[in-house]
Design goal:
The protein is α/β, with parallel strands linked by helices. The protein is 29% helix and 24% strand. The protein has eleven helices and 15 strands. Helix 8 (239-252) packs across helix 9.
Amino acid sequence: MSPIVPLLDDESISEIMINGYNEIFVESGGKLRKTDVSFRDREAWQAAVRNIAQFVGKSLTAHNLSIEARLPDGSRVHIIQEPAARKGTSVAIRKFSKHKLDMNSLIEFGSITPVGSEFLGICVAAAQNIIVSGGTGSGKTTLLNCLSSMIPDGERILVLEDSSELQLQQEHVVPFEVKAPDSKGRGGIDIRELFRGSLRMRPDRVVVGECRGGEAIDMIQAMNSGHGGSMSTAHANSPKDAITRLEVMCLMGGLDIPLLALRAQICSAIDVVVQISRFHDGARKVTHISEVLPVGSDGVANVVDIFSLDGDRNLRWTGKKPSFSDAVMLSDSTDKVSLTDELWTKES
């Protein structure tokens, strides 16, 4: 791997994309650029790929053209080999940040405003169920990491991921990771099994790195059965699209109920959707913080924006207060959780 060691060591680079032995791109500052780095030849590149696979205890064969793995530093690696990769074996390395980010970091980056961050902190402390929505590479996992850092100490947090990326700093965190079965189909456990098992392990909160399929229905049912403060991410372009995306994923779980009933379950389970997007100039910003209300009489999901971007790409209060404002203000811990008029006054 020596040709790309400088790229791995460069902290300004967040992702390395190798499309073949002589075509290597990186992402830095949210923008892609081609490097002048290359491996000696195709054989040297294949040897490097085999070393990665062997190091993580996996193998690339004619019957297994793709693997996902995690390097010791936490970086995520995905490999797709020939003939599926027509230019040659392709690898994407999502680097593991050595710096622990929090909401203050996102404020410094311009990804969210102080008032938006304060509001999300209140939502987390008030145990609202939150979905972080966005496209590929928009910063969903980073934002989920930062939101998770706002969970109060003294709670038991179970973290479920396909590949471990989250870096929760609380004292009582129990991480779980999906494991693929061996060549004979033994010893594996998928995200649905992990989720079902986690609910029997006395969680205060469950954080799912990403909902991709049928596990969404298990998460929705858990949220509806008293597991408040749960969090996850989903691929979607807007808060309303996130609800639709969750509907599709729940149906992938083999659930046989009317769509309207499913939509009502989802809208009852999810309290807040946080939308994050990556712009053409590489900036990543929270574009919406929206509350999910019960399904209306017309059967349509009712998603109300509490914060949204203005014309200058600044996150602003829309003038609407969330329905849980009164409940939060009446809580016993008003010194820690206070959604009072002061917050809205600061914003306006």
